[in-house]
Amino acid sequence: MEQISSPPSAVSATASRAERRPRLPGSISRRILLLSLAWIAGLTLVGGLALDRLMTTTLVRNFDAQLAETLPIMIAAAELDPWGDVRFNRPPAEPRFEEPYSGRYWQVSAKGKSDFRSRSLWDRTLALDLDKACLTLCTSRDESFEGEPLRLVEQDAIIPGSPTVFRFAVAASAATLDAEIAILRRTLWLALGALALGLVALAALQAGVGLLPLRRMSATIADIRAGRLARAPEAGVPPEIAPLVAELNALLDHNAAMTEAARMHAGNLAHALKTPLSVLLNEAAAESPDLAATVRREALAMRRHIDHHLARARASARRANAQARAPVWPVLERLQRAVGRIYADRGVVIDIAGDRGASFRGEAQDLEEMVGNLVDNAAKYGGGRVFVTVAKAGERLLVTVEDDGPGIPQGVERHLFERGARLDTRQPGTGLGLAIVRDIAGMYGGSVSLARSEDLGGLMVALDLPAAPGA
Question: Would you say 221 and 227 are in contact if contact means Cβ atoms under 8 Å apart?
Fold first, then answer.
């Protein structure tokens, strides 16, 4: 049968998608290091900022809390003099409040009243915002004193006997606090930097050690290519690499089997052609009178051998695609039309029935060659009716071809599968159809068998093949 082939559009589409897919630059080690560096840097930055804010806030809060301890003492010691101004019946016990510019200051202020200040302020005054209420504790940073930033704690209070709201404030130089915060930040970022460097070094070590099996695998492949090894050793391989090693060895076994099969096919073809060529040479040397008939006979034999081995070679090459699947029904419909046209003068009728959704786990060309040979034989040697049935049982696909011809004598089934075997020599043919069907089916783990058709009375050929998953 002449093969009906279609362009490999699926392969082209796959290649196009592969070309459009973006490629990641660099080695796997570099990618791991870059990803680790970005992740560690991000975490270090976010964690460092959070820790910096937490510890800085804690230091400032503790500093303000120490300042605020003086406010209750000031409020408790406050009283009014005869003119309505505030005075302390006992001043705060902090000695630095008495030393000018000591860095510790207090002040009591009110609208329309003169400021009552600590001696440490000397000729300066705290800039208090009396328009802002401080019913609870107010804290802030004050930069009004040149060269001396302050932390300021304020609270409003009313002295008995006066309706005036007085603002009590305590301030302290923030230089010590700022120095502590600077030391803390420097220590924090140095520690986080050292930790980040250690993590990057650990990531580099992990990348080197973790990818070591892949480097060994590369060296193993180089040894296989150089002929120093026949297979990749599977002992001591990490579980993550074991599937790769198993697939590599399976590929090597497959290539070895393909090479051996090709060598065997070439040897068989050479052996098959040797005898006809020897006959031709002997007849030519003897100048035999029936040389022309001998040439035709031996040339036909050589063509049968060549067609047989070419068919096997094509099937062996195509079955390498383990993902191939071919719907059966479209193949049967094409064969029904093609064979029906070839034998239209004989009125051959080809009927097909069965599972329309069944698929063959293999190449469509191989399915078409197998079923095509069977349908062609049924149409050629039958009585005019051909019945093709397709069925699926589990993971197997069964295609039966029946005809209404005379059938075959009992006991010659095995003989029909031999190359060049023919029962009806009146019809043209090479005697290779069933042999090719048997060989191609065997390559896919299938089989072909002969029996008598119960419905049509002629020959029934059953082709058992693997079914595609989900078919």
Answer: no
